[in-house]
Fold:
Amino acid sequence: MAEPLAKGTWVEIHRIVLAPGERAPQVPEDTRLVPLEMRVKGFLLEATALGEEAEIETPAGRRLRGNLVEANPAYTHGFGPPIPELSTIGGAVRRILREWGGEG
Amino acid sequence: MSRESSYQAVMGRRAEIVQRSVGIDYERYTTGAIAFDYEGLLADTGYDLEAIRAVQGRTAVGRTPLVELENITALVRSFAAPGKGARIFVKDEAANPSGSFKDRRASLSVEEAKKRGSPGVAAATSGNFGAAVASQAAKAGLRCIIVQEAFDSQGIAQPEIAEKTRACEAYGAEVIRLSVGPELFYVFLRVLETTGYFNASLYTPFSIVGIETLGHELAEQLRERTGCFPDVVIATHAGGVDVTGTTRGLRAAGADRTTMIAASVDLSGLHMASDHDFNRKSFTTGHTGFSMPFTTWPDRTDVPRNAARPLRYMERFVTVTQGEVFYATQVLAELEGLERGPAGNTSLAAAIAIARELEQDRTVVVQETEYTGAGKHPLAQLNLAKRMGIEVVRGNPRDNVPGKKIVIPEHPSQIAVADVDLDRVRRSYLRNALDSVPEEVQLTDIDLEFLAAETRTDRTYVREHTDGLR
Structure:
């Protein structure tokens, strides 16, 4: 059994809000086949192990319950590698300006 | 008192929850079967331009620079016909506290929340507006909850929205991240109902009048610079607030002859509520997935009467492709030293094409920029696109296929706008308007007048195009 995370740890909880059978009638087929999921971050109110039901206090001061999925979750969005299809645009437009020279 | 929290039960209480959360009795404004007193609804916010400026001035919102894009103008002139190539300017709205013009939109809602003694504000938004509400709430000492549609069923987050999650959390907000689906509204209603927070809706009158300062400022700034009001203002168009608020501000400044052009990224063929399509849209806003439905029928939001009525204000509605916007974003960074967008640069891509059509002594103002950063960047979007199996190539932007192929132009002269047929949009609006009331309901003169104003036409047009519909 995993070691519980300490009370006060910044964590993320996960919950299914609507199961596939409960989705709104207007959603397209592919969306209807999957649940509506929710993830919220906050401070753990009691020591709880990952994968267990947990209660958190959110930054707005609300108490929410859900499955404890991550401790101190990282922001992983970034830029990624340069895109070759964009890399030559700058040089090309500067060349156009140089060659054109500004009359017109 | 705990109330039933099932989807059906909460949606059934929708009108009651919304009315309490925005403090507006929308019924009061009803004047006909379809008609309502639009100007009255806006006027009753109680904020005139001076009052709005005072509120926004306290949080350093607004008074952003108007920057002339001399190098891009020169680039356009290099391939335009002799004598053509209007001067292009941009209103650098990224200079607002949270990095976009959405601070203007959020400022009055947060001011109202404070005035009314609400414990906090909540908003349903995956875009810059969330960061704006969170930033304004932080300054006002109010709690804040933002509800986002953030990831697909594989757990893949749209990078631009991931950045907005981070920004909202940086301002101390609680962020509820949801998977794909319109039931976000149900979760949002539950938040409003259980917290009693003020609903900083994107579509209340407070949101619209907050933008009026933007139109007013850019008109005045351009007149100071050139002696004239702008000939053309181009706004990136999604829900219709930019187009509505900016045009109202222009008119208030006296710029009666400025042409308002709405520009959207063409995402036709992608379904907005589809889990599969979610991460195949390389834009989270400013696209036709919002602008088409909202222009043809604005009253599809979290409030009963949308205060954004873009069809009243736009004189032209154009689309550009994804690749053209990414190209324009790169040019803005490398020729003008402004790393901004990308979504906000939709109007810049359109400006490159439109300035080319106009005489050199004309002026085109791009109505916004937005901050850029991790996730919120062409590199992040195009890397995600490639991961989702979308082809990214250089070539003719006309070959762009939303969700399948992104074509980055090979030369700036390939950037072009496609005109949306406004007459078709108007007819579609009228059909939706008639569908919104029971068939036996008779339209009054007030309704005809209202529909004419809504579509920028006259009663004859409205009569001609509604007769066949019932």
Summary: The mean pLDDT of chain B is 96. Chain B has 18 helices and 13 strands. Residues 199 and 267 of chain B are 29 Å apart (CA to CA).
